[in-house]
């Protein structure tokens, strides 16, 4: 299984970004997926999760601003991030539960 995350970049507070995770070697519709993020000095934290049935869950800090999605025909996982804040800055990782990780994509939000 290979996961390749892309879409990170530099934005100003209040702007939006969309991350995508291209999946090979596994079917998106059959697995649980998540986005995590990590900032220097902190543990990797769960941002959003989607189950095979399509149920979603979000960290309190991003609920209402971020949306995780699954595009089964393209075998990708998306994360739409709106109203970005400086505290959303970090490296975002795509994760196929329980143990496959992508390489991470950097998101920087300036105030």
Helix content: under 10%
**DSSP strand tally:** 11
Query: Which structural class do the helices and strands define?
Result: mainly beta
Biggest sheet architecture: 7 strands, mixed
In brief:
With 111 residues, this protein is mainly β.
Walk me through the structure:
This protein has 111 residues and is an all-beta fold. The chain contains no helices and eleven strands. The strands form two sheets. Strands 2, 4, 5, 6, 9, 10 and 11 form a seven-stranded mixed sheet that branches. Strands 1-3-8-7 form a four-stranded antiparallel sheet, with no helix packed on it. Strand 9 and strand 10 (100-101) form a beta hairpin. The chain is globular and about 40 Å long. The model has no long low-confidence stretch (mean pLDDT 96).
Layout of SSEs?
Blueprint: E1 2-6, E2 9-12, E3 17-24, E4 33-38, E5 45-50, E6 56-58, E7 66-71, E8 76-81, E9 90-96, E10 100-101, E11 105-110
Parallel strand pairs: 2-11
Antiparallel strand pairs: 1-3, 3-8, 4-5, 4-9, 5-6, 7-8, 9-10, 9-11
């Amino acid at each position: 299984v290979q996961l390749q995350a892309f879409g990170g970049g530099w934005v100003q507070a209040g702007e939006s970004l969309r991350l995508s995770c291209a999946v090979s070697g596994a079917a998106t519709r059959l697995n649980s997926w998540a986005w995590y993020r990590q900032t220097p000095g902190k543990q990797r934290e769960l941002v959003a999760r989607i189950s095979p049935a399509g149920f979603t869950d979000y960290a309190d800090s991003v609920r209402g601003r971020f949306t995780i999605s699954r595009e089964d025909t393209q075998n990708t996982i998306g994360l739409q991030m709106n109203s970005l804040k400086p505290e959303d800055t970090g490296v975002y990782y795509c994760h196929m539960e329980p143990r496959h990780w992508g390489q991470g994509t950097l998101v920087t939000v300036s105030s």
